[in-house]
Amino acid sequence: MYNPFFKFFIIILFTFIISCAPQNFVNNTKQNKIEIKTESDISTKKIEADNNSSKLEENIKKINYSKNIILNEIEIILPKHENDEITNDFINAFELSLYKKGVNNIKFNINRYEDKKDLEYIVDKKSKPGKIFIGPLTSSYTKDISKKCSKGIIFFSFGSNRNHAGDCVYLINFFPEDDLKVLFDSFEKNSKIALLYPENDYGYYINSIIDNIALKSNSIIINRASYNINLTNAREAIKELSKYELRKYELERQKEILKNKDDEVSKRALKKIKNFETAGIVEFTHIILPDYSLRLLQIAPLLPFYDIDPNKIQFVGTGVWDDEAFFYEPSLQNSIFPGILEKKRKNYMNDFYINYKKQPPRTITIPYDLVGILEYIINNKLNLEDLHKLLDNNLTSFDGIDGQFTFNKNIITRKLNVLKISNGKADLFIKSQ
Q: What is the reported pTM?
């Protein structure tokens, strides 16, 4: 039974829910060197590589200073004022990752920029062949950073615009393409999909990429609708998606026809549909809801009121659902979304909370996996050519805290499972192949 007071309690209990929002991943030329204790008994992440890189040779020849060894002094470049909370969380996450992995041969210098001019100054000042930069944080600052590639440097950017990847710029983030691909691969043949998305950057992006992914699957998108972020038109959007008014009109038409008949069959039929609100059922088998924060907890319970019954229609989320706050919502029980089981990152997230006295955002696992890559590069004394061969080969598989991943065209690609929500947990539903 739906209990609004229970829902209110959950909302209060999980006020940190906003941290699950997708991150578009400071100027301070003053640097802070992180001093980290090490634990020798903590093993480092193993990386499996099949480095068949013959097809990369042409690109490798274009690299300046290709034989220069990668330097173990790495520059973190993050914004000083914009997204300040994310910046601080990431810096803390790098510190914690070094500690947990027992890394003592990598130095991180923290540089915080105020604007693009300041970022360019930092990069120019710190650049030398074999230098790695971690950042920038967002796409707007990543856009023109590839102009610096001739200096023999590498960028691991948290930007989300895939067009900015290439040359010496690698993007490491959570990308919705990975979410949608694993979902459409998991849907049964001839599934009919509806999309209900928020009118924000994330929702618009999902809407812009979903068709190409659906076309390569055995499913079809049959309807879509959007709602503004303050939810003032949410009910109208849901009605449009489910063709609620049309089906309601059809029901009233059937009632009028039956009322004008006097036979027993018609009377029984009229009695049967008397309390129905609409005729027929919705046309789709699945509904994708790419939303997060309190909006998801508000939009999901509205769906059953307009005949989108979670017992009959499969509710589907994206990676932004990977937050325990959503796992108690009654209307989301038995819903599915792409992700990795929490147990792989639970200790790391708990350690973050203990050390920094705040709930960790979901994105802090990105620095942990990046440190694993850097550790491998430094320990094996790779040069620039070796690094590009390692990362530009999509047969190279990394085993991270967020599951296995590769780089394809300089963009991280994650191998995700499909999880199912049940009684406050997200259990394995379909394991990635």
A: 0.81
Contact (Cβ atoms closer than 8 angstroms) between residue 90 and residue 96: no
| pLDDT tens sequence for the chain (433 residues) | 444 434 433 433 433 333 444 555 233 333 333 333 332 222 334 444 444 444 445 555 566 688 899 999 999 999 999 999 999 999 999 999 999 999 999 999 999 999 999 999 999 999 999 999 999 999 999 999 999 999 999 999 999 999 999 999 999 999 999 999 999 999 999 999 999 999 999 999 999 999 999 999 999 998 999 999 999 999 999 988 987 665 554 546 655 665 677 777 666 755 655 655 554 567 899 999 999 999 999 999 999 988 899 999 999 999 999 999 999 999 999 999 999 999 989 999 999 999 999 999 999 999 999 999 999 999 999 999 999 999 988 888 999 998 899 999 999 999 999 999 999 999 999 998 7
Tell me the domain boundaries of the chain: 23-174+345-414, 177-339
Q: What is the C-alpha to C-alpha distance for residues 346 and 348, in angstroms, rounded to an integer?
A: 5
Which single residue is written with the structure tokens 């067009």? 163
User: Could you tell me the maximum CA-CA distance found in the chain, to the nearest angstrom?
Assistant: 92
Contact assessment for residue 134 and residue 156, using Cβ atoms and an 8 Å cutoff: yes
How many separate helices (H) and strands (E) can be counted in the chain?
14, 17
Q: Is there a contact between 122 and 77 (Cβ–Cβ < 8 Å)?
A: yes
Whether the CB-CB separation of 75 and 106 falls below 8 Å is answered with: no
Amino acid of residue 346: K
23-174+345-414: CATH architecture: 3-Layer(aba) Sandwich (3.40)
Strand partners, 195: 224, 288
> For the residues of 217-237, what is the DSSP string, one character each?
SS-EEEEEEEE-TT-TTHHHH
- Residues 340-368: b if buried by 16+ CB within 10 A, e if exposed: beeeebeebbeebeeebeeebbbbbbbbb
At the fourth CATH level, the homologous superfamily of domain 177-339 is Response regulator (3.40.50.2300)
Comparing CA positions, the residue from 16, 11, 12, 8 lying closest to residue 357 is: 16
Q: What are the two backbone dihedrals, phi and then psi, of residue 361, each rounded to the nearest 5 degrees?
A: -70, 155
Closest Cα partner for 76 from 121, 124, 125, 132? Answer: 132
Give yes or no for a contact between 26 and 112, defined as CB atoms under 8 angstroms apart: yes
Between CA 244 and CA 96 the distance in angstroms is 51
